[in-house]
Amino acid sequence: MISAAWIENWERIVPFLAFPADVRRVVYTTNTIEALNRQIRKIIKTRGHFPTEDSARKLLYLAITNAQTTWRGVYNWSSALAAFRIHFGDRLPDTAI
Questions:
Q1: What are the extents of the domains in the chain?
Q2: Residues 79-93: tens digit of each pLDDT
Q3: What whole-number distance in Å separates Cα of residue 50 and Cα of residue 57?
Q4: HSE, side-chain direction, 13 A CA sphere, residue 50
Q5: pTM of the predicted model, to two decimals?
Q6: In whole angstroms, what is the distance from residue 13 CA to residue 22 CA?
Q7: What HEC string does the chain produce?
Q8: Is the dihedral of CA 23, 81, 18, 1 positive or negative?
Q9: Residue 96 pLDDT > 70, yes or no?
């Protein structure tokens, strides 16, 4: 299955491989996202149901705020950001710093 996926999507994979290693690491590292999703699923499962949409929104906000305390900085972000600025130019927002 993996080789079939690579062959089928090869034209999308090759440009990604042209980026420096720091950029590739920033792009494909999803551990933080997976950990956040896991925490959100756990909180929703524990809670069960919500009386209003606003109560669900507040609980998700608190879960994300709590999860932020355990997030680490991105490895070699400054060199990856420099490569993004070269590649994407003015399309990269100033808030990415």
A1: 2-96
A2: 888 888 888 888 877
A3: 10
A4: 12
A5: 0.49
A6: 16
A7: CHHHHHHHCHHHHHHHHCCCHHHHHHHHCCHHHHHHHHHHHHHHHHHCCCCCHHHHHHHHHHHHHHHHCCCCCCCCHHHHHHHHHHHHHHHCCHHHC
A8: positive
A9: no
